[in-house]
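Standup notes
- DV: blocked on the single-chain target, sequence here:
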Amino acid sequence: MPAGDLQDVVRVCRPPLNAPCQGGCGAGEGCFGGVEGVCSPGCDRAADCGGRDCVELSCGERRCAPPCDAIAECPAGYLCDVRALDARGHGQCLPIAGSDAGAGCPDAP
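- DV (later): unblocked, structure below
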């Protein structure tokens, strides 16, 4: 049974956690989840990602798993894993098993 009435629920607006790739990414960042994905820094290991995983995309590129609080904040083919929270209390976008997550990586020059 809920602790209180629905009117007791507090909702908070906040800016998005991740910038979409369509707007261009910052220095050292690239698209996580293809061109429809979100900007994320490159990494060599999880220690580079502030408490989140360093995910190898299908193109061989490695990017830090973007933060999330809900699946809507993750690119298609990814879920919001909140089992282990980062230092700011957010989960991370991880590939859904069997999806084509990581597809759409840029061609090598």
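- Follow-up: The first strand starts at residue 29 and ends at 32.
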